[in-house]
Design a protein that fits this description.
By secondary structure, the chain is mainly alpha-helical. Helix content is about 70%, strand content about 0%. The protein folds into 2 domains: about 40 residues; about 140 residues. This is TetR/AcrR family transcriptional regulator.
């Protein structure tokens, strides 16, 4: 049994469970951390809120890795390369596969509704678009915040097509749509 010092300890254990493909169980977390359930809920909110934080952090780690792994392209092609790497990594992540197999509707609700995951994804996309635009490599037709959220929504819709009843993930469709959104004014 560990002795939790605060919410960060809860997130670390919940992340470990997620990455191991295990359910995020609030009672088990409280027991492992040596705290009461009331304290756990006070620190991190309900299970969905905790899971959203875990998934938002996983989103950021995966996105940062995709940025570092992207090729030498610049501007629109760099953005598309980052997104392609990101979406493929997300879809192949064992923890996410386990979660979506076990709780597909919980995941879809958390991933596609306004909240921690969407906010983090939009902020990451804004940062990438702004960096490319400021460097003069990406002329834009829309304000960065509007374009960022549009790209996030398009990618979510197509990346999770298989969970939304449309067969397989549609990464190439998402990337083609992003190319149109990023085409010069």
């Amino acid at each position: 049994m560990l002795h939790a010092k605060g919410p960060a300890d809860v997130v670390v254990l919940a992340t470990r469970a997620y990455l191991d493909g295990e359910p995020v169980d609030m009672s088990a977390l409280a027991h492992q951390l040596g705290i009461g359930r009331a304290t756990l809920y006070r620190w991190v909110g309900n299970r969905d809120e905790l899971l959203a934080v875990v998934l938002a952090e996983a989103t950021e780690r995966t996105f940062r890795f995709a940025e570092k792994s992207a090729g030498a392209a610049a501007g629109p092609e760099y953005v598309v390369d980052v997104l392609a790497r990101f979406m493929r990594a997300v879809l192949s992540a064992p923890g996410l596969k386990a979660l979506t197999h076990r709780e597909p509707m919980t995941f879809i609700r958390l991933a596609t509704m306004p909240g921690a995951i969407e906010s983090r994804a939009a902020a990451l996309m804004e940062e990438l678009l702004e960096r490319e635009h400021t460097a003069g490599r990406l002329p834009l037709r829309l304000p960065v915040p509007a374009l960022a959220i549009a790209i996030v929504r398009v990618c979510d819709f197509h990346m999770y097509a298989h969970l939304l009843g449309r067969g397989e993930p549609e990464i190439e469709t998402a990337l083609s749509t992003v190319r149109v959104l990023l085409s010069p004014p």
